[in-house]
Amino acid sequence: MSKYRQRGYMDSDRESERPKPQSKPQSKPLSNEHREGPRSPRMMAFGEASKCTACGAKTPPNINFDSSCPKCNADLHSCRQCTHFDPGARLECNKPIPARIVNKHARNQCELFAARIVVERETSSGPPTDARDAFAKLFKK
Length: 141
Description:
Blueprint: H1 11-15, H2 32-36, E1 45-49, E2 118-122, H3 131-139
Antiparallel strand pairs: 1-2
């Protein structure tokens, strides 16, 4: 087999050469909802939260210009807390900004700020009281 006969190389030209395989017609097309089936009741729930980039504590959902973290007192209206922050992008922002903001942890007055929301698992069990409980919860069904 030559390298030009591998899948993906000019497939549109080769498809006309090959005969199409015959398939059985389906009586009813399946939608994505029916194919996956119902969700399992044991599946963990996911919740959205805003977290401080400095310490990881949950922050209030509404962040304004003078907001700070309740735990570490870091500025929340900063580039590091923004959804559009991207270290690989030009000026380290996905939005068109006029000038680069040097200190990404410091408070700024950017009008394009949108609080970064993270998705995390919500677990029902609280912290274990002792090591034996922690081991039992780890391997329980």
